[in-house]
Design brief:
The protein is of the alpha+beta class and 130 residues long. It folds into 2 domains: 7-56; 58-130, no CATH class. Helices cover 12% and strands 26% of the residues. The mean pLDDT is 76.
């Protein structure tokens, strides 16, 4: 197994920056902004300017994270239902006093029908997707 070093830098008032070398001479930078947006950049090692910069909103970042983790999107519909032609991935914020606090995803989604599913839980205290 290859050792991968990730370098983290706090950007005061902005967020955090993470860097890792992806191949000889290239670095991938991920900037996690406090407003929920994410930026991806690729640059040559030793260069300050990014060759490529992609600005993602929170929903796009969550979807890409799920894809990188190996999530597969599929729709299962009852036999008598019309097939769906799209999947909508949405990010919602849960208020501290929300009734869903302390419940499992199944319990929290009860009443929304079978068309709603939780893909991931992002906690503000940690960058991990649970």
């Amino acid at each position: 197994m290859t050792s991968i070093n990730v370098y983290e830098q706090l950007i005061p008032g902005v967020g955090q920056r993470f860097e890792l070398e992806v191949d000889d001479g290239h670095t991938l930078c991920v900037v996690v902004l406090r407003d929920g947006r994410r930026q991806l950049a690729r640059r040559s090692s030793g260069e300050d300017a990014a060759e490529t910069l992609v600005d993602l909103d929170r929903d796009q970042a969550v979807t890409i994270g799920a894809l990188l983790l190996g999530a597969q999107f599929s729709i299962t519909t009852p036999v008598d239902a019309e097939p769906a032609d799209q999947v909508i991935v949405d990010t919602i914020a849960i208020a501290p006093a929300a009734p869903s606090i302390g419940k499992t995803a199944v319990e929290a989604l009860r009443g929304f029908g079978r068309d709603v599913v939780v893909l991931a839980v992002i906690r503000d205290q940690t960058p991990d997707i649970v």
